[in-house]
Design goal:
The complex is a heterotrimer of chains A (315), B (475) and C (288). Chain A has 315 residues and is mainly α. Helices cover 74% and strands 2% of the residues of chain A. Chain A has a two-stranded antiparallel sheet. In chain A, a hairpin with a 5-residue loop joins strand 1 and strand 2. Chain B has 475 residues and is α+β, with helices and mostly antiparallel strands. Chain B contains 21 helices and 10 strands. In chain B, the strands form 3 sheets. In chain B, strands 2-1-3-10-6 form a 5-stranded mixed β-sheet. Chain B has a 3-stranded antiparallel β-sheet with strand order 8-7-9. The radius of gyration of chain B is 26 Å and the shape is globular. With 288 residues, chain C is an all-alpha fold. Chain C folds into 2 domains: 45 residues; 204 residues, MetI-like fold. The chains are: A mainly alpha (315), B alpha+beta (475), C mainly alpha (288). At the A-C interface, helix 1, helix 2, helix 4, helix 5 and helix 6 of A face helix 1, helix 3, helix 4, helix 5 and helix 6 of C.
């Protein structure tokens, strides 16, 4: 999108001397290479992704359990899903999770990556420690944390009690349940950290050398060089985080099953129940596509905003 | 320019080459791993087992998968001797995503012949028309099946238009486990050994002796009083139900008896603080049996599946007692776990033969021996205490006879299911229970307000997409 | 004179550097303790006899270590086979992903072709639709292909540039100086050799991340193997472990033991492989 436009203008700028006729030819060649090199994805998309996506949208036109009921309902599900108060509640909860997790996760992961990049001793060890939580599979993490959160004998409240603080009821409380799930999500910041570390490695050291000669403080270097150079990576993490956070499911299913009092009823949990537990797959598909539109909107906004803050290479 | 990019590229190539080689070697090393498309689809068509019929049997026994594997090995040889024409492929599967696994295969037409299901999943697949009607088979083999050998309500959740759709594998009777040491210390007499020997008032009275602030202890717990079977057995003690037994669309939680019962449970949690919210999702997912064995509670309401765990873990003397009576008499929960034949099975007759085998008394005995399951058949239930005591002498001190009594006297029943069960329980009732029982922020009449919504929803008067709106009106 | 002033500045910098270095170390250690805390709890529990798990006051480290929590699962089930199966799926997927996603990512980052920007939005969009509404259509597709009960549904889609990794690689290629491209084209490179000779070597860090991520995803993936593999010998470690975990909550110490065991290979691979991609290449002295 915008990012692409910037590359295009760069490209146009960097090859102004090429004659029009030759340019035509080269752009055709480039396009051919472009398609050829994108073809693994294109093939995979056409073979494995497009079909199921289209069929899921068609399923939304039926009242169906996939097994012995196929009743055409037209746009009924797609219309009513917008006004369904439970769906709205679920979307609201998911938005809460997303708007809290995305910025917090970005800042935390970035902070850890920058700290670890300061040439500390035993880097491999520290990196592993911070990355470890991202490795443990979802269910084990969810069970482990629901137990750490146990209000009476869980680790957190035990520790808090030992320093004289009465801890909250965590997952058992309507107001604390979602924050608890958010805190747990931050524990997995190691994945994003790793991407930032790789991004930091890609920053040419010459830039720092030049800044050092100019006597720039390390804080200034961070804001003048590191952060701008890292924006493509930050952009990546934010977009993926937005997509991922709107699909929050396993934690809500295992830790709270949507409760208490629907405080953690997330969009995907609700559509999972509608589909697989109530056997109403048509309505579940409509819910999924509503969620799809919401998230797509955010992703497009992020793409649109990219030109104003994402620094792509324009040497 | 970049330092030695050439070398790095070589590094990458070496790395990926190494990876591919490893992948290749792994592929060769793993015999099952070599992708063999289409071999599975045709199943018996491809395999040269001309006269043998193959039955695929999907087992779901996560509580003791190893034990069940041993049970299967032992039982299968005798089955094969009796039925050389039937070959069974035993497919154990992890618990937790049964619906996804079975649904995909059923939609694709490749489902296994027999499935083991429990609880809401049983209801789901019966409602979706995926179970073979077993009634004709049961009638045909009436003597062998001996349906009277099961307790009265065994088949309640498994009937469709009056016809039985599933056969039981085992049951589980809800009991009270209690810490004898604590009872001794508090000078409280042990509960009686017979059903009906104590009631809910005595339960609360005795329980109050065990409530302590520091270190914090409570009297009792279960998996949490939610919109599920855990509240249902108490409701039956008050002579009422969550779901009207004659009309699965009607919710009876607004009835006076139900309200009195719910108030008893609420007060136990929030007024006398005797009940600690147990191993529900919202309270740490820690099983209440663990609270019991780690000496945080004096008693626990739980089924026979905890026997083994408590026996191995408890560092104190303990025993089991019957559930206390409600005002309307004795009550308990009888969990039912069963198997169905898939409606599109290509070999329904052979599948039925297998099912008869897995519900035979021999199989029940092996189930008790290898997986400690409480048999469903009354005739072998009498052997249950002995079977367990043969495995471990420590069971000599435990009053296992209670299990036999409850079924012989037809006390209690299985989980009550609404016509639209999952949505009714999780969407309509559970949020109300959360506020009353889990958080103590509402009185029990709040739950009653949702009974009418539940009924109208189950009768189809409220469509799915309008449910949220209706709930908002009541909240 | 100038030299002296510079030396003094350096000295001043060094002392503030020392202070900030101490600060950095303290922050890293404190953070690591917080991050490792749940993990410590996991290990502690995995080594405990069941009755101690919830004792009060909590026991911080078991006096007597119960290694049987680790051993028991091995007795009945083909754990070794499961590890091999998982390794096969994970390695094949990761290799295929790294190769295909880097090629595709380069194309989206550096080559101009009609509909590219639209297709890139499509790449992102494929990640947005929740998998739960695609499970059944996917299964039907793979049944038609005859791939059920093989590893193909788990591997083949990953050989075709999964969207996540296309996006990852694209973002990294976007940061490589455009000058390189111009220079390479002048030297007579075609777009592929530009990718192969210039961009790929400069992106080892990103490729390393992609490989580690995909290894982890595939190693931990639960739902897909569960749906597509039905025989115990075909299982991957992630589903194999669940087979005996039962009422997960009743058996926390075994669950923790098994989970630790399952992630051990991932951790070891990560620990030793990280230097190849995070430390291995230093793009130094890029002159603009």
């Amino acid at each position: 999108m915008t990012s692409a436009t910037s590359t295009e203008t760069q490209a146009a700028r960097s090859t102004p001397q090429v004659k029009p006729s030759r340019r035509m030819k080269q752009s055709t060649r480039e396009a051919l290479y472009g398609y050829a090199m994108a073809s693994p994805w294109l093939a995979g998309f056409l073979l494995f992704t497009l079909g199921p996506m289209i069929s899921s949208s068609i399923i939304g036109l039926y009242d169906t359990n996939f097994l012995n009921k196929w009743q055409w309902v037209g746009l009924h599900w797609y219309q009513s899903v917008i006004f369904d108060k439970l769906v709205q509640k679920a979307l609201f909860n998911t938005a809460y999770f997303s708007f809290a997790t995305v910025p917090l996760n970005t800042i935390l992961a970035l902070l850890i990556a920058v700290l670890l990049n300061q040439g500390v001793r035993g880097q491999s060890f520290w990196r592993t420690v911070y990355y470890l939580p991202a490795v443990v599979s979802g269910v084990a993490v969810a069970l482990l944390w629901s137990w750490l959160y146990e209000p009476r004998i869980g680790l957190f409240n035990t520790v808090l009690r030992s320093v004289g603080i009465q801890g909250p009821q965590w997952l058992q409380s309507q107001s604390w349940a979602m924050p608890s799930i958010i805190i747990m999500a931050l524990w997995g910041a190691g994945g994003a950290m790793l991407i930032y570390l790789a991004g930091l490695r890609g920053i040419p050291t010459s830039l720092y050398e030049a800044a050092e000669i100019d006597g720039a403080s390390s804080l200034r270097r961070f804001f003048a060089i590191t952060l701008p150079m890292l924006t493509p990576t930050i952009f990546f993490n934010i977009v993926l985080n937005v997509i991922g956070s709107w699909q929050v499911f396993t934690q809500a299913l295992i830790m709270t099953n949507g409760g208490p009092n629907n405080a953690t009823l997330t969009a995907v949990l609700h559509l999972y129940r509608t589909g697989f537990q109530q056997g109403s797959f048509g309505y579940a598909s409509a819910q999924a596509w509503l969620l799809f539109m919401v998230v797509l909107l955010f992703v497009l906004l992020a793409l649109r905003s990219a030109s104003s803050w994402v620094h792509y290479e324009r040497v | 320019m970049g330092r030695t990019p050439r070398l790095s590229r070589r590094q990458f190539l070496v790395f990926s080459a190494g990876m591919s080689t490893a992948a290749f070697l792994a592929a060769c090393a793993a015999p099952g791993a070599a992708p063999a498309p289409a071999a599975s689809e045709g199943g018996q068509a491809a395999a040269p087992t001309a006269e043998k019929v193959k039955i695929e049997y999907q087992s779901r026994e996560p509580e003791n998968a190893a034990g069940v594997q041993q049970l299967w090995n032992e039982w299968y040889s005798t089955f094969q001797a009796a039925h050389p024409d039937i070959e069974i492929e035993f497919l154990p599967t992890p618990g937790g995503n049964e619906i996804e696994v079975a649904m995909t295969a059923m939609v694709a037409g490749t489902a296994t012949d027999i499935y083991e299901f429990c609880c809401q999943n049983s209801t789901y697949f019966i409602q979706q028309g995926q179970s073979l009607n077993l009634q004709p088979y049961i009638d045909k083999d009436a003597a062998e099946v001996n349906i009277d050998d099961y307790y009265k309500h065994q088949f309640d959740p498994w009937k469709k238009d009056g016809d039985i759709q599933m056969m039981p594998r085992f049951t589980g009777t809800q009991l009270v486990y209690y810490n004898k040491d604590w009872f001794d210390k508090a000078g409280v007499p042990y509960p009686g050994k017979e059903w009906g020997s104590w009631n809910y008032q005595e339960y609360a009275e005795i329980g109050s002796k065990f409530v302590n602030a520091d270190p914090q202890t409570w009297a009792t717990s279960n998996y949490g009083n939610g919109a599920n079977w855990l509240t249902q057995y108490w409701l039956r003690g008050w002579g009422t139900h969550m779901v009207n037994p004659d009309d699965s669309t009607e919710c009876l939680l607004a009835s006076q008896e139900a309200q009195e019962c719910l108030e008893y449970l609420r007060a136990l949690t929030w007024d006398s603080k005797e009940y600690v919210y147990g191993g529900s999702a919202m309270s740490g997912n820690i099983g209440p049996d663990v609270l019991f064995t780690s000496e945080r509670i004096a008693m626990v309401e739980i089924g026979p599946w905890a026997l083994n765990q408590v026996l191995d873990s408890a560092q104190f003397k303990w025993d089991v007692a019957p559930m206390p009576n409600g005002p309307a008499g004795p009550t308990t929960h009888q969990s039912v776990d069963g198997s169905l034949v898939w409606v599109n099975s290509e070999h329904p007759d052979e599948a039925w033969t297998v099912l008869k085998g897995t519900t035979s008394p021999e199989f029940g005995r092996l189930y008790a021996k290898h997986a400690n399951k409480q048999p469903s058949r009354k005739s072998i239930l009498a052997e249950f205490p002995k079977l367990l005591r043969d495995l471990d002498v420590r069971y000599n001190d435990i009053n296992l006879e209670i299990f036999i009594d409850s079924l012989a006297k037809d006390i209690g029943g299985p989980e009550e299911m609404f016509a639209k069960d999952v949505a009714t329980k999780s969407q309509i009732l559970q949020p109300a229970f959360d506020q009353v029982m889990l958080q103590g922020t509402q009185g029990v009449e709040y739950i009653g307000k949702f009974a009418d919504v539940a009924t109208r929803y189950n009768r189809g008067e409220i469509p799915d997409e309008k449910l949220g709106e209706e709930l908002q009106k009541v909240q | 004179m100038a030299g002296f002033a510079r030396a003094e500045r350096m000295h001043r910098q060094n002392s503030t550097d020392l202070a900030s270095r101490i600060l950095v170390h303290v922050a890293i250690i404190v953070g690591a303790i917080i991050f490792a805390m749940p993990f410590y709890w996991m290990i502690r529990t995995a080594l405990m006899p069941k009755y101690q798990v919830f004792q009060f006051p909590p026991i911080l480290w078991p006096a007597e270590l119960v290694w049987s929590n680790f051993r028991d699962p091995f007795k009945v089930f083909p754990f070794g086979q499961w590890f091999i199966n998982s390794g096969f799926v994970a390695i094949a997927s990761a290799t295929g992903t790294a190769l295909s996603a880097s090629v595709v990512g380069f194309s989206f980052a550096r080559l101009r072709f009609p509909l590219r920007d639209f297709l890139f939005v499509v790449v992102l969009a494929t990640m947005i639709l929740p998998e739960h509404v695609r499970i059944i259509p996917n299964y039907l597709l793979f049944t038609k292909l005859g791939w059920v009960d093989t590893y193909l549904p788990l591997i083949v889609p990953n050989l075709m540039a999964p969207a996540f990794f296309v996006f990852l690689m694209r973002q990294f290629f976007m940061t490589i100086p455009k000058d390189y491209d111009d220079a390479a084209y002048i030297d007579g490179c075609n777009p592929f050799s530009l990718f192969w000779r210039i961009h790929l070597p400069l992106s080892v860090a990103a490729i390393g991340v992609a490989i580690i991520f995909q290894l982890t995803f595939q190693w931990n993936d639960f739902l897909n193997p569960l749906i597509y593999l039905h025989r115990v010998n075909e299982y991957t470690i992630a589903i194999g472990l669940r087979l005996f975990q039962g009422q997960l909550s009743n058996n926390l110490q075994q669950l923790m033991a098994a989970s630790l065991l399952a992630i051990l290979p991932t951790i070891i691979v990560f620990f030793f492989a990280q230097r190849y991609f995070v430390q291995g290449i230093v793009v130094s002295g890029v002159k603009g």
